């Protein structure tokens, strides 16, 4: 008999069906003994030849089994200590069997996971070499450290080369550690790209347009230049080789359309740092489109005339002045948006930043979540403000129609002229010295109105507190009512005015209509 496989086959035939579990344990012990002997340089045939015949080994097993049964039968009283020891040993054997079973089940899954991760890092290395001409330090090091683990997991499936696998594993670990020290010392663990500078000029100013997108940190500025020059763009910073190639091979007749530092799964270990982009726009040039799409950055945009003005920014601040556009869209998740002295029909969407707009001509729509909106000196046909829990302040403006709504935020409108409608659910509404018509609706929050001039107004509240302060020299009849709350009306006996009327209604809240005192 030359092989262990043949020996085990005959040994299994000598065991009864109900004792197969014991046979499997014996089989594992024999295989482990074989692996140890093979590592010591012995051959499989030598190891098998020294074993008792399968029949003898099976006979010894059943003889021991019979002896145990006989001893147990003759013994009528077993000491407590022996019972305890037997129980502990039995529990240990059960636990060992459970661990072995779990390991057998989990091992292939762990191996599959490690192979998948190894394959991903290997693809990362190949892609980085091919497109960026760079050795991906961290993926390379991780591959060198993962491979020994994989080799150790598959080692038991290889009988003749286990010692060689152990040596290779040690070598790979040492090489990975050495590369880690080298790249750390040279500050090259992360791919930082290459320093690059480029000026791009359009060949014509007819239908000129700019579109720039980046997932890196970018500082962007616009500069107005002489009308004799062509629209142009300056790029400066560190960029990936693939992006540099994209810039160099681009076509720039009447439009710059660039997408740089685009994040993907193969840029996990890339850090190019902040870059700088400057747009040079000739005086009097009207662009067809001005678009910026950034993940991070700071924008200073001045003196732009364009048909479409579009900013999409996740994190960073925007400062814009003297923007003239037919349509404008600004999306900002985390950052401040400041716009001054511009003429534009604008839509702003802000999550948590601050929006400040002053001296703007055009329609305005603001959608906010937890943001602060401060609006001054607007001249608009239509203003729509929607906020969840932030604060909206509008002052010294003119709007044919204003609609401001919130859930539990604050709406404050002062010295504004127009058809004004403000609605809140649980937050606060403040109207001060406005002209035109007022419609104030609140759920359970306070509503405060302060007036010197006469207005037409409707104030409705479910349970919130209502307070109206009116200049007594411009007295107007105010109708007020509350079903269960406290009511005070200092203007109840004022004569009716056909032109002006104020109606204040609350279901359960207090209502106070008071004379304004300087």
UniProtKB/TrEMBL annotation:
The keyword Membrane applies. InterPro entries: Toastrack_DUF4097 (IPR025164). Residues 215-367 form the DUF4097 domain. The keyword Iron does not apply. Keywords: Membrane, Transmembrane, Transmembrane helix. This is DUF4097 domain-containing protein. Signal peptide: none annotated. It comes from Enterococcus moraviensis ATCC BAA-383.
